Amino acid sequence: MINLALLLAVLTVVSASPFEKRASANAGATSSDVFPPTGTKVNSALFPGETVIGYPGVTATGVEPLAIQTAAAYPNSNEAFFPLVGAAPADNNASSDFSIIKQWGNLSPWCTVNSSFYGLPSASPLVPDQCEITQVHLLYRHGARYPTTGSLPTAFSAKLQQATKSMQGFNATGDLSFLNGWTYKLGAELLTPFGRLQNFELGVEFRQLYGHLLNNFTEQGALPVFRTESQDRMVKTAQNFAAGFFGVPEFLDEVSLEIVVEATGFNNTGAPYGTCKNSNVASRGSIGSTAATNFSATAFAPTVSRLQPYLTGVNLTTADVVSMLQLCSYETVALGYSQFCKLFTLEEFKDYEYYYDIAFYYNNGFGSPVAAAQGKGYLEEFVSRFEHQALAEYNSTTNSTLDSNAATFPLNQSIYADATHEVVVLDTLTALNLSAIFSSGPLPLTGRPQQQQSFVASQVVPFATHLVIQVMECSQMSPTKQIRFLL
After folding, report:
1. What is the rounded CA–CA span in Å between residue 434 and residue 422?
2. What is the pairing mode between strands 131-141 and 466-474?
3. Which residues contact 422 (CB under 8 A, 6 or more apart)?
4. What domains can be seen in the chain, in order of their start residue?
5. Which domain of life, per UniProt (predicted)?
6. Which of 407, 411, 403, 405 has the alpha carbon at shortest distance from 386?
7. H helix runs in 421-473, sequence order
């Protein structure tokens, strides 16, 4: 007969053993899964997939939607970020409308921002009654992705893994105790499942708002040409957008996807930093990134002091704090939830946002010496498309081998869609000289200002951000041809 009381006592002693609390040998290591299994392939004879087998049912097509002109209101995001699960700040000192997911700079998912934030309370993206939309241009960022090569989260995981191999190891307690068994589960640069959803939903939204403009292509007897870059996540971004816009598998036959090489030395308006020789020196390396690092060294020093008592064998730095905040962001958009998020307070999340505000404002925004030059290429292409005239000269990042060819750079489309990166969207806004809207002046470098700034990275460069340029014909205005910019 087992003495249950004694057994419980033994379990209590074992669970309290310091040895059991030690980090496992795999803590901080990189782990991953593989799918589909190696060597597997769909049997197309048994499972024809896209093959037409007959019996399709009724397939009558209705009128193309044009909700941007016919709807009573614009379809704003509900900001739920389904299916992601967020967390409350560690101090739980937040109002009901505070969302940590909206404090992650360029790692936040896109959501609707009320125009009143930018001093335009009466602005509406809907087409005015006296106008008719004739053309729309979309410049959009890829959805949520894994970290880029060499980013801070990988350095933090390597630091933990190195500590497990040392003689004393490391031990985490309290709020950090999950680190004892934590492994780095993120890939690199590919779209996450949520990221794929974002671009698919954008395609659905765009078909709902502007689908009527496809009639222009029907009249011409031509297919749209949409562009993207050659990186895997960029190709998949354009495919997911097209799948949402045209349907699956229809998009394979209803749109021409043009893939432009993204590599150093290749002219590409979607990746101008590969051509601009000073981009890494003047823009990224010495201004915004350095200023953001300096800010974080001061802002997160108290965070290090607060968290260090829970961790022995590893000396935390402010760079580690930024890494853990980034892991909060990346794990949430990749895995659906992150235990790192619950470590930080409301003010720390606000400082995290400002860290990105500084970086992007001075790297690729209105405080950058090279941003306008990098955005010039897309701006020139927009003017060319808007005026239906070929470029007269090629003195920017435009690719003359593509942009001088009517097949690869058509000038008579009613819908243009170009996939790119967030820095290029911001470069373009800078080239358009929209600083009066998106910036209330240079951002302070010494500390986060108490007064809300109009430049907020999570609102301008989040995952799946998109710049929309509407071209309208307005009979009662002068000139009758009008353009509007929506972000």
Report:
1. 16
2. antiparallel
3. 106, 141, 360, 461, 462, 463, 465
4. 79-147+191-293+347-486 (3.40.50.1240)
5. Eukaryota
6. 411
7. 422-431, 435-438, 457-460
416, 385 Cβ separation under 8 angstroms: yes
Question: Tens of pLDDT along 298-341?
Answer: 999 999 999 999 999 999 999 999 999 999 999 999 999 999 99
How many angstroms separate the CA atoms of 371 and 415, rounded? 26
- Element housing 5 (H / E): helix 4-15
With beta carbons less than 8 A apart as the criterion, state whether 143 and 466 touch: no
176-182 contacts: CB < 8 A, separation 24 or more? 176/307, 176/310, 176/311, 176/343, 177/21, 177/310, 178/339, 179/23, 179/27, 179/28, 179/311, 180/21, 180/22, 180/23, 180/24, 180/27, 181/23, 181/24, 181/26, 181/27, 182/27, 182/28, 182/339
CA–CA distances in Å: residue 264 to residues 92, 132, 234, 309: 46, 42, 16, 45
Beta strand pairing status for 256-260 and 225-229?
parallel
Is the CA virtual torsion 233, 238, 242, 248 positive or negative?
negative
Q: Is the dihedral of CA 261, 264, 270, 276 positive or negative?
A: negative
Q: pTM of the prediction? A: 0.89
What is the mean pLDDT of the segment spanning 164-178? 91
Question: pLDDT tens digits for 143-159?
Answer: 999 998 878 889 999 99
Helix (H) or strand (E) holding 133, with range, is: strand 131-141
User: Cα–Cα–Cα angle for 54, 59, 61, nearest 5°?
Assistant: 150
Tokens 């998009």 map to which residue? Answer: 251
